Amino acid sequence: MEKRQELYAGKAKSVHATDDPDRLVLTFRDDTSAFDGERMESLARKGMVNNRFNAFIMETLQAAGIPTHFDRRLSDTESLVKKLEMIPVECVVRNIAAGGLVKRLGAEEGQALDPPTFELFLKNDALHDPMINESLAETFGWATPEQLAEMKALTFRVNGVLKELFAEGGLLLVDYKLEFGLFQGKIVLGDEFSPDGCRLWDARTREKLDKDRFRQGLGGVIEAYEEVGRRIGISFD
């Protein structure tokens, strides 16, 4: 597989073309951002940690029958993925109140949400990823009703698999976001799943072990990511 020109560079990842038109190289960098890129920092080992974390999660989801764009890990910081036609809608599930939900609704942080909530956000940095609904997504052509229904169903299937996985490691899956795309006409999970895009708390102490450590200046960001990984069986050595 030959890595070719860079197609896109986001806040923490880069995407390169390959000699296969249906495959891309996804590179996890050490860059970390918060507040729509207002705060940026480089954290040693982060690219490696998130790449291995994502590979483990994607393989776990694939084993559970959930289609993903992940093919294989190429190196410490690179993975081979399918080239998707991305749908610009983020799916968010919340099992416990935290973050934006607390700010918007005045809910108490840590409140269990039963049933879990499901929200949609437009992936648009310039607009700060505004919250949307199915009607808006259909009207503006971001996704069809059938695509949205499949994305929602897959998002909740992911919730079932990962809540159990993290619970076995003494962790609470508080919330997370997923992105999807089309591969050969079928909805497939894309982007990544790492502590950058979810909230994970220690089940006993409620210690935050995710990107909130960076957002809130708590320190020990990568150490927390590695702790989560080790608890669910990931090796970073």
UniProtKB/TrEMBL annotation:
GO terms for molecular function: ATP binding; phosphoribosylaminoimidazolesuccinocarboxamide synthase activity. NCBIfam families: purC (TIGR00081). GO terms for cellular component: cytosol. Its EC number is 6.3.2.6. Belongs to the SAICAR synthetase family. GO terms for biological process: 'de novo' IMP biosynthetic process; cobalamin biosynthetic process. Signal peptide: none annotated. InterPro entries: SAICAR_synt/ADE2_N (IPR028923), SAICAR_synt_PurC (IPR033934), SAICAR_synth (IPR001636), SAICAR_synthetase (IPR050089), SAICAR_synthetase_CS (IPR018236). This is Phosphoribosylaminoimidazole-succinocarboxamide synthase. Keywords: ATP-binding, Ligase, Nucleotide-binding, Purine biosynthesis. PANTHER family: MULTIFUNCTIONAL PROTEIN ADE2 (PTHR43599), SI:DKEY-6E2.2 (PTHR43599:SF3). It catalyses: 5-amino-1-(5-phospho-D-ribosyl)imidazole-4-carboxylate + L-aspartate + ATP = (2S)-2-[5-amino-1-(5-phospho-beta-D-ribosyl)imidazole-4-carboxamido]succinate + ADP + phosphate + 2 H(+). Pathway: Purine metabolism; IMP biosynthesis via de novo pathway; 5-amino-1-(5-phospho-D-ribosyl)imidazole-4-carboxamide from 5-amino-1-(5-phospho-D-ribosyl)imidazole-4-carboxylate: step 1/2. It comes from the Bacteria. Residues 7-231 form the SAICAR synthetase/ADE2 N-terminal domain.
